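Structure in, sequence out. Go:
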């Protein structure tokens, strides 16, 4: 039962009962309820923004973020493994395949260049784990570019491999005069005494002394580009373009067994030893050119002589004597 309250009426000198209007009483109750609800709501908002209170949604998002970090860590480990595999392939490509096919290596600055960072990763910035995501994305981009470069390189190697048989046939790999037909190896590649001026000068080929009419053989597959006596000093001579930068010259011939424009195979008889031009006796002057530079023919005699014969020829060729032209 609620308490009854009184007030003193000084005019009538008596206590009178205080009567509370229902509307006022209802308003006070409503105001109290509204204040309580507002306080509770504000307290709830404050609790939501403190680390000590997590909703089910917060816990779910936290697990998702942790799983994301774990997946990125696993992805980076797999990229480490893929990178090791790619580096092994790149090493074989540079130091085996490209060396074998005489191609220059691809520099690491090209293989691992990646992509310019200007605005490429801007969309990934501004998040709690932006650095992790950006670093992983950059690594993926670099791996993709490395794979693309390696794929193109292997395409080149494949084409070179397909042309390897042509290259092997084109290399001037045999002696132009057979050993059984030789009188002697008169002079090798290098500085020799000129037979006419007696001055020491560069001898850009090898002289094979043999009887007039001894067969001369094409040392590799190719096309005859010259078969005349227009070059000073060489007399009757033949030039064969083998391709892949190789070219051979056969000078002082007695006569020809081929013509300009004819395609020849290694071992074909193209002419016969003679004594034409600037020559001091029947012999063949033979030169090998690679990429327009004269090279020592001795480095190519592996197609038809034994190791013992090669050593013997090398010893004779390295002797400084007088050339025959």
């Amino acid at each position: 039962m609620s308490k009854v309250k009184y007030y003193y009426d000084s005019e009538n000198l008596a206590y009178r009962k205080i009567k509370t209007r229902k509307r006022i009483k209802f308003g006070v109750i409503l105001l109290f309820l509204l204040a309580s609800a507002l306080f509770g709501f504000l307290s709830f908002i404050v609790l939501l923004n403190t680390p000590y209170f997590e909703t089910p949604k917060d816990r779910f998002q936290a697990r998702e973020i942790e799983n994301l970090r774990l997946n990125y860590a696993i992805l980076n480990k797999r990229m480490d493994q893929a990178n090791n595999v790619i580096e092994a392939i790149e090493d074989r490509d540079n130091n085996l395949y490209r060396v074998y096919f005489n191609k220059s290596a691809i520099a690491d600055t090209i293989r691992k260049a990646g992509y310019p960072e200007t605005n490429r990763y801007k969309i990934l910035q501004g998040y709690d784990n932006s650095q992790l995501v950006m670093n992983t994305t950059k690594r993926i981009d670099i791996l993709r570019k490395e794979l693309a470069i390696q794929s193109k390189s292997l395409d080149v190697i494949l084409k070179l491999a397909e042309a390897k048989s042509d290259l092997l046939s084109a290399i001037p790999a045999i002696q132009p005069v057979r050993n059984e037909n030789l009188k002697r190896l008169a002079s090798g590649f290098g500085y020799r005494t000129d037979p006419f001026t007696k001055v020491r000068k560069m001898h850009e080929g090898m002289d094979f002394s043999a009887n007039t009419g001894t067969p001369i053989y094409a040392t590799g597959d190719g096309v005859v580009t010259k078969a005349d006596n227009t070059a000073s000093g060489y007399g009757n001579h033949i030039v064969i373009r083998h391709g892949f930068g190789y070219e051979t010259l056969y000078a002082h011939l007695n006569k020809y067994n081929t013509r300009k424009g004819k395609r020849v195979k290694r071992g074909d008889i193209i002419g016969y030893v003679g004594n034409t031009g600037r020559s001091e006796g029947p012999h063949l002057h033979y030169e090998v050119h690679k990429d327009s530079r004269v090279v020592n023919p001795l480095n190519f005699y592996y197609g038809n002589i034994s190791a013992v014969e090669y050593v013997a020829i090398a010893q004779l060729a390295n002797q400084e004597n007088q050339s025959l032209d």
